[in-house]
Design a protein that fits this description.
Length: 457
């Protein structure tokens, strides 16, 4: 099984990887299908289903779909250009993607929210249609946003499309057991095996540069969030808090006021800074999703800024180890909140971050697997119940607590010898089963939990 580090960590735009980035990517794929078609097209229509409908406005799914149909992509997103494009689309009721004619598209009428049953393939479904001069549909495709910005068509999902197509890799582990066996037989760390797999599909230079960019975007996102205050958009009037917390922590330095547990506040500030940026529609890295984007950067920043001996030259080792664990979770369960609740998002992120931290602090492959297991195990059953469909409450604070759990899990694993009672594979399978059993109202629909038990207007 191969899932690239650049699949797990994608540069994109908030507030949601599955509800914002995914639909934008799906729209881009549909435009490509239109360009390859022999038909002449005059208009566009679409419908959003399941969780994409229920929390679509709060997650900016409609906005992302509109911009995607206008030719925008997450990794090259420009906020000012997007705002101008949206205004032009509203005024003209048309879009003109590159390589296609001017197409009729009135978002108020041509993009529908369908609040009926989910489409059969996944909770995050959308249908895009192109029409002829008479308004008849001449091209149609169903897409599923399966978490972390990953998109599959209806046919791809039905075929069980694998994530490891292409050149064979030297260490194709599909489970933690296989991963540990390969590590033992090869004498390599998890990061070294992951790197060998990546190099088999690319080259050393692109891997190094790509990892450097991932961390740069993550770190820049923290820095922006730590200096920006104000109120987040969406109507809940949630105040940004990361800057005030960070300012207070900096003021307390050298004053002998800090209790040992204050380090938790540093981690929370880093994570909240990222997720406040995400909630505001800023540039983030899926890690493995936007809703859980703060955990990994917070733990890396904690390690670099607060742990003696840490060095930025080993960030790629952190990322590669984390990506290996994230790939196991995605392959054997889910990283989608709409499919398995927040255990699949913040839980997966905490497992990945715990593994990465354990690795760069000298952990053996067995200790790394143990760290991931501890972190994920103690997120089992966590629901996804965003208030008003916004990736704000409880999502922002939850990333801070996820980072704290990740560090604690890595520390506990490093205190042991890697031997432990519950295997990571068992926890991943338990998470999958728990997600399948979880009531739909607790899976990113905002129809249960905190979403209905606190004021949301």
């Amino acid at each position: 099984m191969f899932l690239s580090v650049f699949d797990m960590f994608k540069v994109g735009v908030g507030p949601s990887s599955s509800h914002t980035m995914g639909p934008m990517v799906a729209a881009a794929r549909f435009l490509d299908a239109m360009r390859a078609s022999p038909f002449e097209f005059h208009g566009l229509r679409g419908s959003l289903h399941g969780s994409l409908a229920f929390t679509g406005v709060g997650h900016a799914t409609d906005r992302a779909t509109i911009l995607g149909l206008a030719g925008f992509l997450p990794d090259s997103y420009d906020h000012e250009l997007a705002e101008a494009a949206l205004e032009h689309i509203r005024e003209t009721e048309t879009v003109q993607p590159e390589g296609l004619p001017v197409l009729k598209f009135n978002p108020r009428e041509d993009l529908k929210f369908d609040f009926g049953p989910n489409l059969p393939g996944h909770a995050n479904g959308m249908i895009l249609m192109a029409t002829d001069a008479q308004g008849d549909v001449t091209l149609q495709e169903t897409y599923y946003s399966i978490g972390g910005g990953f998109i599959l068509t209806e046919a791809e999902l039905a075929e069980g499309k694998a994530t490891d197509e292409g050149t064979p890799v030297p260490y194709p582990f599909k489970s933690a057991v296989e991963m540990l066996e390969m590590a033992e037989h090869s004498g390599k760390t998890i990061a070294e095996m992951k790197k060998a797999n990546e190099v088999a599909r690319g080259c050393h230079e692109s891997l190094s540069k790509g990892c450097a960019r991932i961390w740069q975007v993550m770190n820049d996102c923290i820095d922006r969030g730590l200096v920006t205050d104000g109120t987040l958009p969406g109507g809940l009037n949630v105040r940004r808090r990361a800057k005030a917390i960070h300012d207070a922590l900096q003021a307390e330095r050298g004053m002998n006021l800090n209790a040992p547990h204050t380090i938790n506040d540093w981690m929370s500030a880093y994570a909240m800074a990222v997720n406040e940026e995400n909630a505001a529609g800023g540039q983030v890295v899926t890690a493995p999703t936007n809703g859980a984007a703060g955990v990994m950067p917070a733990v890396i920043r904690y390690w670099l800024d607060h742990v003696p001996g840490a060095t930025a030259s080993r960030v790629d080792e952190f990322l590669l180890t984390a990506a290996a664990i994230g790939g196991l979770v995605k392959f054997n369960a889910s990283i989608s909140g709409a499919e398995a609740g927040c255990q699949a998002e913040v839980g997966s992120a905490a497992a990945m971050a715990a593994a990465g931290l354990c690795a760069v602090m000298g952990g053996t492959p067995e200790q790394v697997e143990n760290a991931a297991e501890i972190a994920l195990e103690h997120h089992l059953g966590m629901t996804c119940d965003p208030v008003k469909g916004l990736v704000q409450v409880p999502c922002i604070e939850r990333n801070g607590l996820g980072a704290i759990k990740a560090v604690s899990a890595a520390s506990l694993a490093l205190r042991g010898d890697g031997q432990h009672f519950v295997p990571l594979d068992s926890v991943i399978e338990t998470m999958r089963q728990t997600g399948a059993d979880m009531h739909e109202k607790y899976k990113e629909t905002s129809l249960g939990g905190l979403a209905v038990n606190v004021p949301n207007c």
